[in-house]
Amino acid sequence: MKTRTISGACFVAIITGFFVLRQHVDARFFLVLLWLFCAIGTFETARAGKDKTTAFEFYSGVVLGVTILPVYFAIETLFTAYGTVAANFYITLFAAVIFIEALIAKKTEGLGWALLPVFYPSIFLVLMTRLNYFEEPFGFIGLLLVFVISPCADTMAYLVGMTYGKIKKGNVKKLCPRLSPNKTVAGAIGGLIGGTAGSLIVYAIFKPDLGLNLPVLFFALTGLILALFTEIGDLLESFVKRRAGIKDMGKIMPGHGGIMDRIDGISLAGAVSLIIFTVIRL
């Protein structure tokens, strides 16, 4: 528990540092954080299925993870608003090359694992990168909500699930035992409450300074929605790990596992946050 707490605190401190750089130096600094997430996360995803893919397929996924956000940034800088299109084309190109290689080699049984790191988590992080380019205060609030709501949802789900499990002496209803036997319905409800509370805290702290013309109900609903997709992202990651036969995606964060074990919910919530803030800007 101590190791998990220290590791989590370091993760929060790093994210906070990048937010400070984004707000007070240059918004593009936040792209460095997202690039690290994408590069490490794609490597972890590719490694999870390494035994089921060829060397070419494995390294193709790794190369994509390292290069996708620089490609996005370069195109977005040179041709405003075309970065997302270019990134999606780039991802599709890698997928096509891997697919053709598998057909030529007649080794299609591991094709799903070969394509997984091409799309996951890169496509979600590319969408979150687009959110970073929104005018203020929408870009800042859209990103901040993701990085507050998701950890709040994770933490509350863990604490409520653990506490309720002790009270009931393990006799609790499981959320999705086939994917993640430790997750409970009580924990999931706690996560939704925690995410909503995190969003309302952001509203209370930042609304006076940023002059947001958004009602408290918007923040409550956004907190609930992003918390829900955080939990869906967590279950998606559990599915990948279960299929790969591994407990954690890596060891870079002691007590938590790999980067993907921390950004599974964040990456999906980030994509949903982009949709929400795109709509309210119309």
Total domain units: 2
Report the helical percentage.
over 70%
What oligomeric assembly is this protein in? single chain
Sheet with most strands: strand arrangement: 1-2
The tally of helices reads 10
**Major β-sheet, in short?**
2 strands, antiparallel
Shape call: globular
Poorly predicted segments: none
Q: What is the C-alpha radius of gyration, as a whole number of Å?
A: 19 Å
Could you give the distance between the termini? 45 Å
* Strand tally: 2
Spell the H/E element sequence.
HHHHHHHEEHHH
Please identify the structural class as seen in this structure.
Answer: mainly alpha
Mean pLDDT: 88
Strand content: under 5%
List keywords for this structure.
282 residues, mainly alpha, two-stranded antiparallel ribbon, 10 helices, 77% helix, globular
Write up this protein.
- This protein has 282 residues and is mainly alpha-helical.
- It has two domains: 28-132; 136-282, no CATH class.
- It is 77% helix and 3% strand.
- It contains ten helices and two strands, in the order αααααααββααα.
- The protein has helices spanning 2-24, 29-48, 55-78, 83-105, 111-119, 122-132, 138-167, 185-210, 216-244, 260-280, and strands at residues 174-176, 180-184.
- It has a two-stranded antiparallel ribbon.
- β1 (174-176) and β2 form a beta hairpin.
- α2 runs antiparallel to α3 (55-78) and α7 packs across α10 (260-280).
- The longest helix is centred in the middle third of the chain and has 30 residues, at 138-167.
- The protein is globular, with a radius of gyration of 19 Å.
